[in-house]
């Protein structure tokens, strides 16, 4: 009887694991939603990651807990097992594994699609892992604006991904919504940022009950104002807003004025958003943090200022449920 009891307990554990389905990583991140779509934060760092190449004294080289992957979001639909990436970063192998595990390992090898914001190194170079020398993927849909499409098709090694049909580029029109499933929609929009090789996009991700804004790179909120769009209005229209937090404040990079660096400082954003109602400020989570950004440290004065302002810093494996149920995401400002 003892052996039978042990066997039954083991079987129950196995069945419970299977029942968890498409949400193992999300479970670790603190969500209790098991059947509705969700967004999973896969990275929070600026293009160079944390620690950054050449910064040999950074603690992340010795302490893995101090490392941060390049900013990226995953979108998962447990009902269909489909999942999508927002940006293909240099950390794509690890991030794709995390996205795969968020579906309980039941999904296919490649994502069902990748949405690209722009042609800066942290946002598209992960596409190389889909190629002939690595995954040898077949027809992965890559959603890109027109100049981004032209850049990929005209420059090696990316044109080889197109010729070998590793990727299938889907051209985005800013303002036009892409319907992924009956319940999931993605809307691209233009944002002002350095455009050496491509346009720069932000994305609004809509689920059956909730929505997320993703703007990892932008020159300034004032320049967005000049386009006729106010960031406050974009925040008001969503439930969570992941916004450019590349640098915290003046003096962050020794010997260099921050005024010539095209990103809104977190300190500037805290001041601008300070007039918003508490419920609106609670939506804001800063992402795309440079390796010099003190807000990467939850114990820092910079992080304390963000929390006291009623906003947050994005955390890896943070989950935002997109269903109609109660908010399953981490509280803004939680570390």
What is the strand and helix layout of this fold?
Layout: H1 2-20, H2 24-28, E1 38-43, E2 72-77, E3 82-86, H3 92-101, E4 113-115, H4 121-124, E5 140-144, H5 146-154, H6 158-163, E6 167-171, E7 178-179, E8 185-190, E9 201-206, E10 211-215, H7 221-226, H8 231-236, E11 240-244, H9 266-273, H10 278-281, E12 284-287, H11 301-308, E13 312-313, E14 319-321
Parallel strand pairs: 3-4, 4-5, 5-6, 10-11, 11-12, 12-13
Antiparallel strand pairs: 1-2, 1-14, 2-3, 7-8, 8-9, 9-10
Report on this model:
The protein has 335 residues and is an alpha/beta fold. 25% of the residues lie in helices and 19% in strands. The chain has eleven helices and 14 strands. β2 and β3 (82-86) form a beta hairpin. The longest helix has 19 residues, at 2-20. The chain is globular and about 50 Å long. The model is unreliable at 1-21, 23-33 and 330-335 (pLDDT under 50).
Within CATH, the superfamily carries the name: Ribonuclease Z/Hydroxyacylglutathione hydrolase-like
Named at the architecture level, the CATH assignment is 4-Layer Sandwich
CATH class: Alpha Beta
User: What gap, in angstroms, lies between the N and C termini?
Assistant: 47 Å
Summarize the structure.
By secondary structure, the chain is an alpha/beta fold.
């Amino acid at each position: 009887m003892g052996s039978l009891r042990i066997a039954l307990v083991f079987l129950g554990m196995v069945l419970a694991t299977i029942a968890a389905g498409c949400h193992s990583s999300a479970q670790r991140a603190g969500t209790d939603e098991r059947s509705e779509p969700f967004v999973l934060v896969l990275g929070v760092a600026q293009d160079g990651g944390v620690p950054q190449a050449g910064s040999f004294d950074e603690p992340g080289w010795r302490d893995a807990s101090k490392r941060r992957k390049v900013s990226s979001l995953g979108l998962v639909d447990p009902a269909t097992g489909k999942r999508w990436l927002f940006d293909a970063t240099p950390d794509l192998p690890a991030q794709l594994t995390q996205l795969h595990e968020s579906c309980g390992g039941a999904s296919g090898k490649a994502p069902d699609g990748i949405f690209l914001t722009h042609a800066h190194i942290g946002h598209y170079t992960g596409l190389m892992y889909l190629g002939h020398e690595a995954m040898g993927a077949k027809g992965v849909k890559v959603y890109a604006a027109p100049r981004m499409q032209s850049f990929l098709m005209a420059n090696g090694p990316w044109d080889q991904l197109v010729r070998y049909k590793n990727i299938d580029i889907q051209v985005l029109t800013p303002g036009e919504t892409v319907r992924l499933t009956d319940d999931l929609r993605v809307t691209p929009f233009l944002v002002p940022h350095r455009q050496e090789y491509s346009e720069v996009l932000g994305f609004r991700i809509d689920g059956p009950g909730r929505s997320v804004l993703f703007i990892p790179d932008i020159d300034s909120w004032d320049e967005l104002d000049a386009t006729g769009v106010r960031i406050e209005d974009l925040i008001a229209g969503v439930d969570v807003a992941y916004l450019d937090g590349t640098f915290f404040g003046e003096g962050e990079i020794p010997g260099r004025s921050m005024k010539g660096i095209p990103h809104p400082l977190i300190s500037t954003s805290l001041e601008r958003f300070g007039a918003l109602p508490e419920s609106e400020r609670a939506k804001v989570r800063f992402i795309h943090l440079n390796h010099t950004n003190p807000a990467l440290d939850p114990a820092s004065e910079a992080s304390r200022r963000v929390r006291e302002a009623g906003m947050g810093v994005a955390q890896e494996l943070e989950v935002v449920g997109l269903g109609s149920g109660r908010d399953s995401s981490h509280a803004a400002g939680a570390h």
